[in-house]
Amino acid sequence: MKIVALAGGIGGARFLRGLRGAVPAAEITVIGNTGDDISLFGLRVCPDLDTVMYTLGGGINEEQGWGRAGETFTVKEELGAYGVGPGWFGLGDRDFATHIVRTQMLAAGYKLSAVTEALCDRWKPGVRLIPMTDDQVETHVVIEDERGRRAIHFQEWWVRLRASVPALSIAAVGAEESKPAPGVLEAIGAADFVLLPPSNPVVSIGTILAVPGIRDAIAAKTVVGVSPIIGGAPVRGMADACLTAIGVETSARAVAELYGLGLLDGWLVDEADADVRVEGIEVRSRPLLMSDPDATAAIGQAAVDLAMELKRAEEAG
Question: What is the Cα–Cα distance from 82 to 252, expressed in whole angstroms?
Answer without folding.
Answer: 47
